[in-house]
Amino acid sequence: MQQIQALPPQFFQTLKIQTILGQGHDAKVLLALETKDSGNQLYALKCQAQKIQDTAINLFNEIQILIHIKHPHIIELFGYSQDYTCLVLQYCPHGTLIQLIKSSPLPVSIASSLLYQVTLALNYMHEQGFTHGDLKLSNILIDSQYNLKLCDFGFARWNGKMAIEKQTIAGSEGYTAPEIWKPNPNYMKTDMFSVAVIFFILITGHPPFESNNPDNHDPWWNLIKNNEWDTYWKDIRTNIDQECKNLFVQMFSTQPDERLSANHLNQWFKLKQTTQENLIQEIKKRLAEM
Ligand SMILES: Nc1ncnc2c1ncn2[C@@H]1O[C@H](COP(=O)(O)OP(=O)(O)OP(=O)(O)O)[C@@H](O)[C@H]1O
Ligand SMILES: [Mg+2]
């Protein structure tokens, strides 16, 4: 495998910034153009937005993880600045999964094709002991060929540990599993919970609950937590088929062991997915509508 290295300051000085692609919790993501005799190249530069130690830790962690993983559905890291505050990433020109549900939720077959790709990447990571830690719609990008790429590895772990351990709870509210509030959760199972939240949002257009932080007493989460599924399905009044309902009951379980693994969920999505042709047609249609 090609070695990913720290790039000298001269590399960054020659780049021409085109626009801002995103502004997240940790960083600003910029579109940058490299002009070379052999042809121009676009990159996404993810750079520290504010000089806060926690954000520097996340970027350092992201570099350490991305150096070790390479997969068709994981964003490619080309290099990084010598002080570890800027990542040079493959540019994905079609935004994130958020763009696909702007006008309406997705049919189950389309959402399954998308999550088939996500769970392929996740199975690859989990098999090697890596976990993502912050799976959500805005951390799944669409590349130039309309393939999905996982991004944002600031909270990723290897064998349960980050490159530098922090005290703060990782992940994004509304996507994290309930056991994240307890010590030493199984991070593979917390990733699987987040995948189910993503699937729920894609096929309904809204989240399954607002928060499972015990301090927030979210009424939707209370129904899920207490296994009051009949009331839950009645109250949300969304058309979800029985097979999907059964999947959500299993994946949102407060018992992490009941949740399917990335490999098993990948098989589930494989059976439900549409053809590659349909998928690309639907993605193009939805991006054009924006
Ligand atoms: N390689 C890329 N190509 C195109 N756009 C990107 C790329 N990487 C990130 N973005 C855009 O920038 C946004 C923020 O990136 P990222 O999630 O990596 O940063 P973050 O600061 O860790 O985010 P947050 O804390 O909000 O999750 C993404 O949601 C996406 O819109
Ligand atoms: Mg993000």
Average pLDDT, rounded to a whole number, is: 95
Low-confidence residue ranges: none
- C-alpha termini separation: 39 Å
Helical coverage, percent range: 25-40%
CATH-derived architecture of the largest domain? Orthogonal Bundle
Order of helices and strands: EHEEEHEEHHEEEEHHHHHH
Q: Class of the largest domain, according to the CATH hierarchy?
A: Mainly Alpha
Provide the structure class.
alpha+beta
Distinct small-molecule ligands in the complex: adenosine-5'-triphosphate, magnesium ion
GO molecular function: ATP binding; protein serine/threonine kinase activity
Domain Protein kinase: 15-269
Pfam families: Pkinase
Protein name: Protein kinase domain-containing protein
Task: Describe the 3D structure.
The chain has 290 residues and is an alpha+beta fold. The protein folds into two domains: 6-90, Phosphorylase Kinase, domain 1 (2-Layer Sandwich), CATH 3.30.200.20; 97-288, Transferase(Phosphotransferase), domain 1 (Orthogonal Bundle), CATH 1.10.510. It is 39% helix and 16% strand. It has ten helices and ten strands. It has helices at residues 9-14, 53-66, 97-100, 108-127, 187-204, 219-225, 229-236, 242-251, 262-272, 276-289, and strands spanning 5-7, 16-23, 27-34, 41-48, 77-81, 86-90, 130-131, 140-142, 148-150, 157-158. The strands form three sheets. A six-stranded mixed beta sheet has the order 1-5-6-4-3-2. Strands 7-10 form a two-stranded antiparallel sheet. Helix 4 packs antiparallel against helix 9. The radius of gyration is 19 Å and the shape is globular. The structure holds adenosine-5'-triphosphate (ATP) and magnesium ion (MG). Adenosine-5'-triphosphate is lined by residues 21-22, 24-27, 29, 44, 46, 75, 89-92, 96, 138-139, 141, 151-152, 154. One of its GO terms (molecular function) is ATP binding.
